[in-house]
């Protein structure tokens, strides 16, 4: 005779790590990967230039503008946006396949993109990554050597606006200087907790 | 100049560990205490006889029926109920003081009591502790040597009813045989996650 399971069914989560530019979304994702956590990490498609150390197909799919336009045309992106003059997009098929196999899917995305994911999938799990204070965020953005003064000003203004969008998200996680692992620990705890909800999130895309 | 904090304010949680008789609520609470977690563990008042090893004022406040009646009369209990012919109740002042000091408050309570807490405080964090399967729960209840056949039958029937109240709770945690620490880890993860909600629970009593 089969045993009568009491608990709600296991359902995979769609986990969105977002937050203003400069909070360390890539670094947090990188550390999560290093820990060998059993999630599917979405590889974002982008037209931005490959940075030193980045691997095509691992960190991003680095595409030409033509290739990116093709993906948009064939409706192969879950969402896409122009982020500081570069296109970024989430390949739809990749996310669907991972969810169908029962895996939790983790993606990093800008605040605007997170908003799109929320409207596509109200039950997505949205994590807002940030610094402790606004001053710390501005300080971090200012230290980036890759910025022109105009680029920096734009990023700071955008970040300030994005901090006001907190209520769009489910959770707020501080990624403090030198405390990367604490931020990752919290994200892992959130995912663990979410798998124990009595009313599981229903992820459909 | 003060720094502009981004994150929501820290608010203490009212954490209710509940579930059918026999799932190990006391054992889980005991292990949480042993770990030295920074929570206030509510000491429940009860008229049931002290069991070997239990300490008055630590495990429970062991009261006579007269003393318990006085507490009810003076409205000093958050809730109280007759559980298998014994009175149990949550001292109100103790909970309020701990919350006022900013501490998370953890209490164990039967399913009926959890329902009362939910109606008193809709933002309480309710955890349903259970076994993996219904058969396992029945098996555990049957192994208790302290039960009369009638007592056992009543507990099993009640447990079966209580399993249907899952939707009253926020989270479901399995306390499997020999995996007590896994259950405690999950509860700790839930509390950690809950402190990172963008919309904190508002606990008022």
Tell me the β content of chain A: 15-25%
Mean pLDDT of chain A: 92
Strand order of the largest sheet of chain A: 2-7-1-8-9
Number of helices of chain A: 7
Termini separation of chain A (Å)? 36 Å
CATH superfamily annotation of chain A: P-loop containing nucleotide triphosphate hydrolases
Class derived from helix and strand content of chain A:
alpha/beta
Envelope shape of chain A: globular
CATH class of chain A: Alpha Beta
Main β-sheet of chain A, in a few words?
5 strands, parallel
The assigned CATH architecture of chain A is 3-Layer(aba) Sandwich
Q: Low-confidence spans of chain A: pLDDT under 50, at least 5 residues?
A: none
CATH topology-level name of chain A: Rossmann fold
The quaternary state of the protein chains shown equals homodimer
As a percent range, the share of helical residues of chain A equals 25-40%
The largest contact between protein chains, plus residue counts on each side, is: A-B, 36 and 36 residues
Based on DSSP secondary structure assignment, what is the total number of beta strands of chain A? 9
Structure, briefly:
The structure is a homodimer of 205-residue chains. The first copy, chain A, is of the alpha/beta class.
């Amino acid at each position: 005779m089969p045993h009568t399971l009491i608990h709600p069914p296991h359902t995979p989560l769609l986990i969105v790590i977002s937050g203003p530019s400069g909070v360390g979304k890539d670094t947090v994702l990188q550390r999560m990967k290093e820990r060998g956590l059993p999630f599917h990490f979405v590889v974002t498609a982008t037209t931005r230039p490959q940075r030193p150390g980045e691997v095509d197909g691992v960190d991003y799919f680095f595409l030409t503008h033509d290739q990116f336009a093709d993906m948009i045309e064939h409706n192969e992106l879950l969402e896409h946006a122009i982020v500081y003059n570069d296109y970024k997009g989430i390949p739809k098929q990749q996310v669907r396949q991972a969810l169908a196999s029962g895996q939790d899917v983790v993606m990093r995305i800008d605040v605007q993109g997170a908003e799109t994911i929320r409207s596509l999938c109200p039950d997505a799990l949205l994590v807002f990554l940030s610094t402790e204070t606004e001053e710390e965020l501005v300080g971090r953005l200012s230290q980036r050597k890759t910025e022109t003064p105009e680029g920096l000003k734009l990023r700071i203004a955008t970040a300030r606006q994005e901090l006001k969008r907190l209520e769009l998200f489910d959770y707020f996680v501080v990624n403090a200087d030198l405390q990367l692992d604490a931020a990752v620990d919290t994200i892992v705890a959130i995912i663990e907790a979410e798998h124990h909800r009595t009313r599981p999130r229903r992820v459909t895309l």
